[in-house]
Write a structure and sequence with these properties.
This protein is an alpha/beta fold. The chain has 3 domains: 178 residues, P-loop containing nucleotide triphosphate hydrolases (Rossmann fold); 37 residues; 116 residues, Up-down Bundle (Zinc Finger, Delta Prime, domain 3), CATH 1.20.272. Helices cover 53% and strands 7% of the residues. A 5-stranded parallel β-sheet has the order 2-3-4-1-5, with helices on both faces. The radius of gyration is 24 Å and the shape is elongated. The termini are far apart.
Length: 341
């Protein structure tokens, strides 16, 4: 990749809905009051990593302009290429042989970060470390980080990113200045998402299903389960009417995978519960509202809630070694049991 291509692709600017927060941090930087440890929290899909990348670039840039990185100096080019000697980005490790990604940030990674933090900046400016998602530090790793948070060294900034900040150890949280990144207004989110989706109504639907998080909404558009929602609803209705068996239905949905299937069912069940409670006008799957309203008339909200709880429990089981196929089979069997009462 050429230097021109690097400058064009690296996110030196935050998203539009992050501007006020950006200005607040930039003022602290200019006033030399920037905290040495920042815990940046916020919902998944609102752009925490984009913000962090842009702010890291701002810190390391040798010739910032109008409060953002220039994108042209040696520091900016090294950062965009992933070779800046004064920046360390810590996240899950992926095994090159198996392709499997770890489920936590390990202590050995944090020890590398601690060692990095003790070195002098090679380019004479800041040393910056980013950790994401910080709430998935394991206990050993979290303990290993404490001293660095207390005594980070001169011109050192540590950014912790998390969608679940309360899951961090209290001793970690207390050593960081905590800031919540904003969720954009609907107008701000639509202004960004609609041109990329090419359809404002679909953009509204995606945002509704993503709790207003634009990046999550854009990702959802490509999710296989999103395009199969109607078929899944119709299969649930066919099962409820005893027109097909749980086993045959489960076999058809195995190819989607347990995680995607459970995610889809949880989202649909939320709307079924709402509709069964008499609030069909506020369902999030707006394009499927007639089907959802028709189905909901056959169920009691309490029964649907119990089934939804079972789905949530199974989703947690996926973090272990439970076979996804077995969870799919059990899910459709439970739905038949619910609807046959």
């Amino acid at each position: 990749m050429s230097e021109t291509e690097i400058r064009a692709t690296y996110p030196y600017h935050p998203y539009a809905w992050q501007q006020l927060f950006w200005q607040q941090l930039d003022e602290l930087l200019v006033q030399q009051r920037l905290p040495h440890a920042l815990l940046l929290s916020g919902a998944e899909g609102i752009g925490k990593e984009r913000f962090a990348k842009a702010f890291v670039a701002r810190l390391l840039c040798q010739s910032p302009r109008d409060g953002v990185a220039c994108g042209q100096c040696k520091s900016c080019i090294l950062l965009a290429a992933g070779t800046h000697p004064d920046c360390m980005w810590l996240t899950f490790l992926t095994d090159e042989k198996t392709g499997k990604t770890a489920k936590s940030i390990k202590v050995d990674q944090v020890r590398e970060l601690v060692e990095f933090s003790a070195k002098s900046a090679q380019m004479g400016g800041w040393r910056v470390m980013v950790m994401t998602p910080a709430h998935l530090l394991n206990t050993q790793a979290a303990n290993a980080l404490l001293k660095t948070l207390e005594e980070p060294g001169r011109d050192t900034v540590l950014l912790l990113l998390s969608s679940q900040p309360l899951s961090l150890m209290p001793t970690l949280r207390s050593r960081c200045q905590q800031r919540a990144l904003p969720v954009p207004t609907e107008a701000e989110a639509l202004a960004w998402l609609a041109p990329q989706v090419g359809d404002e109504n679909k953009a509204r639907l995606l945002l509704a299903l993503s709790r207003g998080a634009p990046l999550a909404a854009l990702s959802l558009r490509e999710a296989e389960w999103f395009s199969q929602r109607e078929g899944l609803l119709r299969d649930l209705m066919q099962l409820a009417q005893q027109r097909q068996t749980a086993l045959a239905t489960a076999q058809r949905w195995h190819s989607l995978g347990a995680d995607s299937l459970l995610t889809a069912l949880l989202s649909l069940l939320d709307d079924l519960v709402v509709a069964a409670s008499g609030a069909a006008t506020v369902v999030k799957h707006r394009d499927l509202a007639p089907i959802i309203e028709g189905m909901s008339a056959h169920f009691q909200p309490a029964a649907l809630l119990r089934f939804r709880q079972g789905l949530a429990d199974r989703q947690r089981l996926l973090a272990g070694n439970v076979q996804g196929g077995a969870l799919i089979d059990a899910t459709f069997s439970d739905w038949v049991a619910l609807t046959s009462r």
